[in-house]
Amino acid sequence: MRVLIGNSASQVAKIAAENVLAGLTAHGSGNTPVLGLATGSSPLGLYRELAQAVREGKADFSAARGFALDEYIGIRATHPQSYRQTLISEVCNVIGLPEHFLFTPQGLGETIEEIEAAAANYDQAIAAAGGIQVQILGIGANGHLGFNEPGSALRSRTRIKRLAAKTRQDNARFFEGLERVPTHCVTQGLGTILEAGRLVLVATGAGKAEAIAAAVEGPLSASCPGSVLQLHPDAVVVLDEAAATGLKLRDYYDDAAAGLSNMQLHLD
Ligand code: F6R
């Protein structure tokens, strides 16, 4: 795992975007980038940096595929708070990813079985697209990844999950009262997320420090779903100073941030 710490919001966004673009080069094949997309405030700066790369001719998402991490159950895909609509306005319209290439889990159905079957099909659709090359992630203050709340199976697949009470409270500001917040969602599983070529997780602010310390340096545990990053061979965690305050190995991360560029190949 690489832990990269920026000293401002704009530096965090830039570092994250560089790592997304490099990940698409490293794990992509052909001209069709396949991105996994997170909603939430953490990756907004990163999406703006990707848009800047498009303007500068360094990236092109016009033929890309985007797979959302998660979607609420019980609200229409056209509902303004659906993650589909959120991703259309915060990602598609920003980086130029066509709406018809944005895939989101199906959160509406006549029966639970129908939603379960659609969730299984979502994993198949990711596989049919050749797999997610770079998965963009945020992390909840409780350590959740996607909507894999604490207690989620570490090898889980895309499926229905109950939202934690804290997550519903955190998201109530987007709805007209807590009772209007969906109780369930469909989320990529932790096992699904781990299949992406590279994971790029962005976290900022002191409210994320505890979750980051547990995810990066704590034991691998369903109690902190973010700790599955430790299993991934190409995980990049991009933090601001506040989110990094709980890390014990900070000096090592700073030394290692230069990557292989300052390696001394011949010492005698
Ligand atoms: C988003 C998602 C969540 C968020 C997490 C952090 O699709 O699944 O895991 O990434 O709740 O949210 P923010 O970035 O708003 O703090």
Overview in brief:
By secondary structure, this protein is of the alpha/beta class.
Structural summary, described in words:
The strands form two sheets. This protein has a seven-stranded parallel sheet. It has a single domain (2-257), classed as Rossmann fold (3-Layer(aba) Sandwich). Helix content is 33%, strand content 16%. The protein is globular, with a radius of gyration of 18 Å. The longest helix has 19 residues, at 9-27. By secondary structure, the protein is of the alpha/beta class. β2 (34-37), α2 (44-55) and β3 form a beta-alpha-beta unit. It has helices spanning 9-27, 44-55, 83-95, 112-128, 165-171, 190-194, 209-217, 250-256, and strands spanning 2-6, 34-37, 65-68, 70-72, 102-103, 134-137, 159-162, 184-187, 198-203, 235-240. The model has no long low-confidence stretch (mean pLDDT 96). Residues 38-42, 69-70, 138-140, 144-147 line the site of fructose -6-phosphate (F6R).
Keywords:
10 strands, Rossmann fold, 268 residues, alpha/beta, three-stranded antiparallel β-sheet
Task: Describe how the helices and strands are arranged.
Elements: E1 2-6, H1 9-27, E2 34-37, H2 44-55, E3 65-68, E4 70-72, H3 83-95, E5 102-103, H4 112-128, E6 134-137, E7 159-162, H5 165-171, E8 184-187, H6 190-194, E9 198-203, H7 209-217, E10 235-240, H8 250-256
Parallel strand pairs: 1-10, 2-3, 2-6, 3-5, 6-9, 9-10
Antiparallel strand pairs: 4-8, 7-8
Bound molecules: fructose -6-phosphate.
- The H-and-E topology, N to C, reads as EHEHEEHEHEEHEHEHEH
Bin the helical content.
25-40%
User: What is the CA-based Rg, rounded?
Assistant: 18 Å
Bound small-molecule species: fructose -6-phosphate
Arithmetic mean pLDDT: 96
Tally the helices.
8
Sheet having the most strands: 7 strands, parallel
> Which architecture name does CATH use?
3-Layer(aba) Sandwich
Q: Distance N terminus to C terminus? A: 30 Å
